[in-house]
């Protein structure tokens, strides 16, 4: 069983080669390695965690079935993300766009006021992410949720590193503008910025 | 610049926490689905004397999916057929003018016995903010279950139809 953490491109390439030879354990290791990134990309499109989970699950099964079509093992990540994108778009076609999915009150155990504030923050973050264009959101998700480097994001999204940096920089600026009150908590108390009058 | 870095760090943490809280729950789902698929393929493999078992080939998996597709298509066709037959019976029974002499006649006996149930619930899907206006999202979920008996075929047909309507309710900020 492949239980060690895979971090090198060579390891991924070896796993892909093994998986192509019908090694289910190698493919399971690939699932483990790419699942977070795939969830990030699917979430960027669907903006709904449950549906993103379903799309990723479907994408991995499709990838397993179509692995023989992948010509270059090194490009497995980008190829997989493309399948994830297609699965997410299929989900949108089947079920329509996500409408106003809102987080349930987060059970923080700090009382109803704190829970309401946490839920409010969650809603603001989701609304701010929704303002970004899809490609920028994908890049931001891979950086913030998965912690990928610029080079890794570029490989996964099939973009140049410079384009990734530009997207992330643009995304950060937009999020800063949208989430100003998270950065400056006092702003919450000023009238007109979502705070109390 | 430094101010931006601090702000970015706060925002990054907020995004990671928000998204992570939801997406982390989805982790492991794919591995489980893959294991289930392999187990299914393994079962099919043993039935056909295939000893590869857990190392089911992609080709084997695609065969399983193809079989599932055809089984699904057959089920869908059967459901459509049931709907058509049911509707015909229902229309026929509704349009027939019955006289006292018709009572107990075969045409009456062929009338389907309909039973319809509807379950409805409103789910509060939370509040969204659009142009500084808080709006409550309400999902009205309905499941309509229709069942009828065809005395000629001596068969019971049922159709379950899930319906979801999303409503928006403007909230008064205070």
Features:
heterodimer, A: 197 residues, mainly alpha, Rna Polymerase Sigma Factor, Chain: A, Arc Repressor Mutant, subunit A, 2 domains, 68% helix, disordered C terminus, B: 174 residues, alpha+beta, three-stranded antiparallel beta sheet, 4 helices
What does this structure look like?
The complex is a heterodimer of chains A (197) and B (174). Chain A is mainly α. Chain A folds into two domains: 9-95, RNA polymerase sigma factor, region 2, helix turn helix motif (Rna Polymerase Sigma Factor, Chain: A), CATH 1.10.1740; 112-189, Winged helix-like DNA-binding domain superfamily/Winged helix DNA-binding domain (Arc Repressor Mutant, subunit A). Chain A has nine helices and no strands. Chain A is globular and about 55 Å long. Chain B has a three-stranded antiparallel β-sheet with strand order 1-2-3. Chains A and B meet through helix 2, helix 3, helix 5, helix 6 and helix 8 of A and helix 1, helix 2, helix 3 and strand 1 of B.
Principal-axis shape of chain A: globular
Poorly predicted spans of chain B: 47-61, 94-111
Let me know the largest β-sheet of chain A.
none
Main β-sheet description of chain B: 3 strands, antiparallel
Structural class by sheet pairing and helices of chain B: alpha+beta
What share of residues of chain B is helical?
40-55%
Please state the CA-atom Rg of chain A, rounded to the nearest Å.
19 Å
Question: What is the CATH superfamily classification of the largest domain in chain A?
Answer: RNA polymerase sigma factor, region 2, helix turn helix motif
User: Roughly how many Å apart are the termini of chain B?
Assistant: 36 Å
- Residue windows where pLDDT falls under 50 for at least 5 positions of chain A: 1-7, 100-107, 186-197
CATH names the topology of the largest domain in chain A as Rna Polymerase Sigma Factor, Chain: A
Top-tier CATH class of the largest domain in chain A: Mainly Alpha
Protein chains sharing the most extensive interface: A-B, 55 and 47 residues
Number of strands of chain B: 3
**Average pLDDT number of chain A:** 81
- The CATH architecture of the largest domain in chain A is Orthogonal Bundle
Number of strands of chain A: 0
Task: Give the oligomeric state of the chains in this entry, treating copies of one chain as homo and distinct chains as hetero.
Answer: heterodimer
